[in-house]
């Protein structure tokens, strides 16, 4: 009480804010252990609230960032041990108190996700009615908090992270909701982002994010009330509608990874699973109708890539054309059934496409050819393919 009264002696707000900043800097620097002392928690909550309220639309970004780091440091130091409900209550109170600081909201969502995973570890994945209800409360916290974060890239990352946490805790409907929210948000991603006062393309982030998203979709089961692979279809619609940079082939790179995903989905048993989550391999059991639906989507994606390759016939884009054709060829080696005549012919055409346009990477093609020779010793279909490819030499 005396501590808070002492702070109230600073009648000028700027002086009071500076004093609070010094207090939090000292706490973050010298408080090496976690605490749940109510006097410390309540006192520093007041101090952090003062810092939070000092932030306005006129505050410099660096100052906002510094304030966010101080408050985040406080949040991470509060630990109620095994009393997870009290811990969640603290996070709820912190969200209400620091709603205008993006770094703090991001931290809170991450902390709540960690709380969910700690709960899962304690019960060894076998949730009781009580722990399942607690998980739903944590999931609801994240789902409510994420939309209030201003940075779209943080929102996307947290939607995917929270979706993974929800599925890991068998909250399948909630996990679906996170993934659908992420897919819907993708169209709002700006084409450029500002890094160190410089404008840069957002496509590298988007490409990395989509690859991460696709790898997780392998273990996500279809919703019983939705169509087959409804999340994959929804994601493909967004990829098609997104305003990609026409000077890059990022969209096609995503499509190649979609082919890899769909190829993995046709396996009798998937490469990896999430514990206590029945993926589509367990749901459909390699059903012919499911496989046929997957093949339809693959055919559509292949048509899109081939159509794009045709548009790169100009003098300035031939190098991109050769590179994409070779990437597609290599993807077929790993994903396609080369014993199928259509797939084999597609691979041959892509190889010729890459080799004959005059802008190919001769050394890379030579290394690829050598790789095929080694693979052909153990895979007859690769040996057959190799016999149809013209010999290449290093430039």
Automatic annotation (TrEMBL):
It is found in: Endosome. Keywords: Endosome, Protein transport, Transport. One of its GO terms (cellular component) is endosome. It comes from the Eukaryota. InterPro entries: VPS35L. GO terms for biological process: endocytic recycling; protein transport. PANTHER family: ESOPHAGEAL CANCER ASSOCIATED PROTEIN, VPS35 ENDOSOMAL PROTEIN-SORTING FACTOR-LIKE. Belongs to the VPS35L family. This is Uncharacterized protein. It comes from Paramuricea clavata (Red gorgonian). The lineage of its organism: Eukaryota, Metazoa, Cnidaria, Anthozoa, Octocorallia.
